[in-house]
């Protein structure tokens, strides 16, 4: 019997500060190679960020297990540096790092 393989689709929202939009775009045009490698190695697939002009950031990724993927990144040194640098770009984190503030939205429809 052929084993079926499912990817979890994850979408989340964050808010980038209006005065930081241009720099946020610049930083993501040149993500550190070691950060890209760590994301791939810890199970982040089809990871995309979409930024609206008012600062609304929509993130989307596919993974086998979102909690395991987050934990894998949390264990890396490069992620700690990246999160520290990215923290000041966001509104309303309430003391959390950006990756801790990623709360998945509930999927209500998917065209398969």
TrEMBL record:
InterPro entries: Dimeric_a/b-barrel, Rham/fucose_mutarotase. One of its GO terms (biological process) is rhamnose catabolic process. One of its GO terms (molecular function) is racemase and epimerase activity, acting on carbohydrates and derivatives. SUPFAM superfamilies: Dimeric alpha+beta barrel. This is Uncharacterized protein. The lineage of its organism: Bacteria, Bacillati, Actinomycetota, Actinomycetes, Kitasatosporales.
